[in-house]
Write a structure and sequence with these properties.
Blueprint (H helix, E strand, L loop, with lengths): L1 H20 L13 H4 L5 E3 L7 E3 H23 L6 H9 L2 H22 L14 H4 L14 H17 L6 H18 L3
Helix pairs in contact: 3-5, 3-7, 7-8
Length: 194
């Protein structure tokens, strides 16, 4: 009986020592879901812009913010001749008729693809096949870019994205919005070329 007690006591001491040596610092941080997943991810929902079609909720969330941001930029450019983003979008806005509508839709699709893919959207529908960010924002390479960006231009663009995120309920989740701002800021040095 005494041997059994010693053995039990020894096992308890070893187990206790092993458990106390594993502190919370040794536990890995829980993995945060991707931005795309937190925007709804791959859950399929009805596409409000295409009757009878389905779209991933994450992609739809990005498309809403992108379209709203484009709308804010175009409204500012057309209503404010001195807007510092006008020069950037002038070639696109100079296109006429259905070409302009198609070009703006293509810009929206490219931006939606870019943000969806680079924030965790892994579905082939989210694959970005456009120019690199440096090439896309360099008028010498991309004829649809009217001017190189300055820090002030990029800050103004981020403001439009923030207003669009707010209008679409994304900014109400402050942690998610902060993560989106981190992504935008990570692009600044590539996009700002002046």
């Amino acid at each position: 009986m005494r041997n059994f007690s010693k053995i039990t006591l020894s096992v308890l001491l070893i187990a206790s020592a092993a458990l106390t040596s594993c502190s919370k610092d040794d536990d890995p941080e829980p993995v945060k879901a991707s931005i795309y997943a937190r925007l709804g991810g791959t859950t399929m929902v009805a596409d409000p812009d295409n009757s009878g079609q389905m779209i991933e909720q994450g992609r739809l969330s990005f498309r809403k913010v992108v379209n709203s941001a484009i709308g804010l930029i175009v409204a500012d450019i057309t209503n404010n001749a001195s807007g510092n983003l006008k020069a950037h979008f002038a070639p696109l806005l100079a296109e006429t008729g259905s070409t302009q509508t198609t070009s703006i839709a293509k810009l929206s699709d490219n931006l939606t693809d870019f943000f969806s893919f680079n924030t965790g959207g892994t579905n082939a529908v989210n694959a970005y096949s456009g120019l690199s960010m440096a090439a896309a924002h360099n008028p010498a390479i991309n004829a649809r870019m009217g001017a190189k960006s300055t820090d002030a231009d990029y800050t103004k663009f981020e403001g439009y994205v923030g207003a669009a995120a707010n209008a679409n309920g994304v900014a109400s989740n402050t942690e998610l919005y902060a993560d989106i701002v981190v992504v935008l800021e990570s692009l600044r040095s590539t996009i700002v070329q002046m």
